[in-house]
Amino acid sequence: MELRQLTQFVAVAEALSFRRAAERLHMAQPPLSVAIRKLEDELGAELFERRGRTIRLTAAGQEALRTARRCLADAAEVRAATRSAAQGDSGRVRIGFVGSATYSLLQRLLPLFSKRYPRIELELRESTNEEMLSMLEAERLDVGLVRVPTVRSGTVQFEVIERDVFHAVMPKGHPLAAQRQVSLKALAEEPLIAYAQTKVPGLQAMVMLAFQQAALSPRPVQEATQVQTVLCLVESGLGVALVPSVSARFASKNLVFRPVRGLPASASIGIAIAFHAENETAAARRLREVARELSHT
Questions:
Q1: What is the pTM of this model?
Q2: Nearest Cα to Cα of residue 273 among 107, 86, 103, 109
Q3: Each residue of 87-118: b (16+ CB within 10 Å) or e?
């Protein structure tokens, strides 16, 4: 049984006339009559009582009509859902993100995207750069909001969405907090909370590069993976740190953030949307388009 047969049967049942149904279906009447007879043979029951030019539904035909309408409605829904998903208007996007993306980017991106595409489900997962890139390559994530620069390459591509600079952070009451700007030389003389090389090699490399280009040797005393953890260690009095400036937005009042004097231009950081171009879904592409809009504003 085909959807075409059900469409023909419903047309005849609603018109109670082979001639009018044929006109509605834009076909000749004899082939329509033959098609209905074949459908009855296939079902093993008469769907219509035929009395000359007058026809009416049998009890079996009335039951078949209810089911046929439901089947056609379901088929139309399948077509609409498939078309919507193919165009990126519905579906699901699995998003990984670093913790510092919650300071600004996610708060702007998610409401805008959900308003524009309410039928796309978002599945969020906080993670690290390395984990997200592995999950993207394994197709367990659709996009990742990662901290850049990152030392990993491969099949994953990147679009920078949010650019930032390092700021120095120290506990309130720290001697350096009295300065409007802090030099790298002054920071090199303090205990430094650094980033774990195995987990966030990009951030760790940029911090070390900034000191090296100034011919300075910092004194790392602790390592952390997430920016939020770095801030907690600084607040605990264990040292100072270089962190993305956006992290000051929701930081503790016990912390002081200062611009860094002499920071090389090469120490550029930010957040990028990482994606696997070969396996990108239409819904994931929609998310990337909205993120790109935000980067331009």
A1: 0.66
A2: 109
A3: ebbbbebbbbbbbbbbbbbbeebeeebeeebe
Q: In the CATH scheme, what is the code of domain 166-267?
A: 3.40.190.10
Task: Out of 3.40.50.720, 3.40.50.2300, 1.10.10.10, 3.40.1160.10, select the CATH number for domain 3-87.
Answer: 1.10.10.10
CA distance 134 to 141: 9
Which tokens belong to 253?
């009042």
Q: How far apart are CA 237 and CA 282, in angstroms?
A: 47
In tens, the pLDDT along 206-233 reads: 899 899 988 999 999 999 988 999 999 9
DSSP letters spanning 201-239: HHHHHHHHHHHHHTT---EEEEEESSHHHHHHHHHTTS-
Please give the order of strands across the beta sheet that includes 241-244.
182-183, 255-261, 166-171, 241-244
